[in-house]
User: What shape does this take?
Amino acid sequence: MRSKLGKYRTPYLFIAPFFVLFAAFVLSPIVYSLWLSLQEVVGIYVPLQFVGLKNYLDLVSDPRFLHSLVVTFTYTFFQVTIMVVLAVILALILDQRTLRGRNVYRLVFFFPVITSFIVAAMVFKLLLDKEIGLFNMLLRAVHMRTHAWLEDPTYALPSLITIGIWRWVGYQMVILLAGLQNIPAELYDSARVDGAGSLRIVFRITLPLLFPVIFFVIVMSVIGSLQLFDEPFILNMHGGGAGSGGPADSMLSTAIYLYQTGFLDFRLGYASAVGYVLTVVILAISLLQILTFGKRAGFAEI
Amino acid sequence: MNGSLDGYGGEVARRISLYLLLTAASIVMLTPFYWSLVASFKSQSELFDLPNVFIRQPTLANYAQLFGQTLFVRWFVNSCLVAIAYTVLVLFFCSLGGFAFAKYRFPGRNGLFIALLSSTMIPPWVTIIPIFSWFSRLHLVNSYLSVILPGSANVFGLFLMRQYIQGVPSSLLDAARVDGCKEFGIYARIVIPIIAPALGALTIFAFLGSWNSFLNALILLRTPDMFTFPVGMSSLVGSMNPQYGVLMACAVISVVPTSIIFFTMQKQLVAGITLGATKE
Assistant: This one.
């Protein structure tokens, strides 16, 4: 035993620092959170009270929680779909070697990646302001109806989706561009020799070969979008309030709801249950995507 | 399309419309930056009473107010301290752990690695509640440690390091062993210099990640003097009477460090982003 441990001492020592932190701040919180989700606990210094699955059962009939799922799914569906379509189009255009200034364009589309969500949300709050926002200013100039984009429940979520697309489209474009570079040029050449037009080449050769990368982008974006928090949090901070779900709860993402229950009401058990349901939703959707399209995307090889 | 657009003329028309489209899209992408920059140099009255796309009377009042009347400088320093400490920890732990996963065989290696990777599927929302609860009990809430430590077991970083170190020839390490080099010496004197480019990429990711991180800091930092930049900014947004000009000045300054990183280390940034999406 001793000699065996001695033999492997070096690698264990090398992973130890990382693993100690991982155990303390990732692994044990994951386990403890599951335990907490089975307790009735309001506050930090109060004893836990085991209630079994009560929190989960309560969630099923909690209208605000169910509404938060609807908001989160709606956001995710539209944000990811529009963003991926735009990113694919941009990547296809900017992949053309003959295009002049393509590096400048790439830089421009990629640039929002440097902003934090906070800055993005703050800037859009001003851009979409009903009085002094640039967007309404332009609408006024062409005599079109203006709206209170962030205060009107009808437009709040679409505004949020727009911000998400703006912040992420260039990031996804860069990943797709890298994928395009891995497609061998001979394939295009032989298709051209066969007399295929550009659009036909895109649909018959480029997109099918790019599919694994597109799939990766979609799966990762869905995981990210389902956790939506920073932008709605900032957009709905005013008058000293924090963590609101926006006008008529139109921006109440599940993560915002978790914040409300956990860090405003200090219902730590209930909030943990929200966290676990969100986790299960994320895992289930990812798994569903992989089972449906994973084979075509080459997941079987891994 | 009529017939005359075929051939050369059609190609030119297609090109021009493509450039127009790209330029229009670029303008849309850059407008938020332009708007915040412009707003940061406008006085409160110009911003509200004379809404305009351009600046009439540029003023530094917003910046003066930001520096003079908020804890802005303090937040900036806090963010720098936290981001630097976090980055150093991540670089060390991830490269050392990545080296072990890449170049040693030991029982549990694959199981452990899969466990690490699957943990990235779990949203931080699950871990933040216990972390908050434990740090509160340990009276560590509102400390630098509370925002540096929890994220420092960075699985992405470990994965990046492992990938890169796998490409280092094992014969090189064996040669050093024959020459009597200790295992930690191999890590410090052979592996580290070779993987310097990957360390560069990880430096950017760790720094940007910490600089922009909001959730942990929002929950674990309680008093304004301890706030990091994003939390400080959000407290300005949340104040009773938010002053847009000051907020925009704050936004402009906050993207300065990240822009510098962006322009100087673009290559590493892209390399890190595309890792995992494309198989080499």
In short: Confidence is low (pLDDT under 50) at residues 1-5 of chain B. The longest helix of chain B spans residues 7-40. Chain B has 15 helices and no strands. The radius of gyration of chain B is 25 Å.
